[in-house]
Amino acid sequence: MQYIVLIYGNEKGWSSLAKGQAEKMYADYRKYTEDLSRAGVLRGGSELKPTTAATTIRVRDGKRQVTDGPFAETKEQVGGYYLIDVPDLEAALDWAARCPGALDGSIEVRPLAQSAEM
Amino acid sequence: MLARAIDQLVRHEGPRVLAGLIRWSGDFDLAEEAFQAACTQALEQWPRRGLPERPGGWLTTVARRRLADLLRRRRPSLPLEGPLAEALAADESEPQESEPEVEDDRLRLLFTVCHPALGQEAQVALALRTLCGLTTQEIARAHLEVEATTAQRLVRAKRKIAEARIPFEVPAADRLAERLAGVLSTIYLVFNEGFSATAGEAWIRADLCAEAIRLGRLVVELLPREPEAEGLLALMLLHDARRPARTAADGTLVPLEEQDRTLWSRELIAEGTALLDGAVSRGAPGSYQLQAAIAALHARASRPEDTDWPQIAALYGALLRHSPSPIVELNAAAAVAMAHGPEAGLAWMDRLERSGELAEYHLLPAARADLLRRLGRVAEARAAYRRALELVRHPAERRFLERRLGEVG
Description:
The structure holds 2 protein chains of 2 kinds. By secondary structure, chain A is α+β, with helices and mostly antiparallel strands. Chain A has helices at residues 11-15, 19-38, 89-98, and strands at residues 2-9, 42-47, 55-60, 63-68, 77-85, 106-111. Chain A has a 4-stranded antiparallel sheet. In chain A, strands 3-4 form a two-stranded antiparallel ribbon. Among the domains of chain B are: 2-92; 105-166 and 176-224, no CATH class; 225-307, no CATH class. Chain B has helices at 2-25, 28-49, 55-74, 82-93, 102-113, 120-131, 136-142, 147-163, 173-195, 202-222, 227-240, 243-246, 266-280, 287-300, 309-322, 326-340, 342-355, 363-374, 378-391, 395-408.
């Protein structure tokens, strides 16, 4: 069963980290990624650029409406994601709990639709 | 008469049977459908042919065959495999063999329906539906909601279990304490819905208490030596012991100090106290054990003036350190007032009032009013009772407060 692990946090907080703190955060994520990979559950994932780099597009009546910024302004933004393949929600939550972002932000765990048993 | 006996039997055996069906199929809806079919068949056959020797085994066998049919119909190309196929094969040779694993299934089911990935209201509804065998209509009535709302809540919860794949299992040892706490709090929520006088028909509320106690017993039986599980069961039994004395004939709430203590159930008090003693001896205190200890001290006093208030105040102090909340604080303040005089309690309640945390909670002004009345500060007491009356919702509590306001003059 595949789950996406969405890492939510305050991106202003991330960008204003001191150099040492930022290095530690990246080291923690590298270690976490390695652990996922070694356990054979990692299917993909990446850090995302901040929402200042985001562009939103809608097509209405055949016309493209392109706007600057994310789809919705929220207090916490997605800063990255992992795609994992594990037996059930309990296992997914165990992995999500080990994500460094769980300590200061929130992790949303969602099953992939095509992964569900039909 | 027989129909009623069969109905009770089905209710009693149902949760075990259903829990097994859910494990075999991994599908709540199919399991429920198969179970309903078996119940219908029982109601048809048992009156004519007499009760089977082991009704639970009979229901399991019939429901399992039905479940296999349903699964084959849904996935005709796939052969049945795994535990269900093995169980069916066993049915062929020995139709009513003993089932050593059914107990575990009910515990698995309890942990599954009380998974924190489900909302608490959904947990309560699912537990009542699957483990207590209440109908959707009964659950709706108990929660004062339309049946369609409850039905939808159940559908959504079952869909979430399937889609997010919440496992049907007792959590691993390192997660057990955390998950058990969630299970216990859902059970206590069911109990409180029945016990705390919010609204609803009296009989269905008493039913909720009975179901919560049944779930509490199930946990203690299947997961022995867990002090907080024992503490919760003790707490519920000790509260339930006072039920016959809690409401007057006209439905007015009778406060603890005015209750006819001869109406309290000695049997439930003895059982609750013994359970609590066992729990405390394990040396791992917790909030349910502390609350049960407070309830036990009340239960032990045969007259209100015999109540060991200093000990109760001390226990509330411990409870406050263990699980701080403004409501526990209010209770602690009331106990301090009884143990060390109204002024001490009132000073604490005034601080609570200034904090604004319980601004909408009618029992804060009600408790203040009570202390002011005892201190002879009539005008302030009257104002506090009026404030409590503005906030109170339940008619029985309202009548009680109106009576007190009248007595202050």
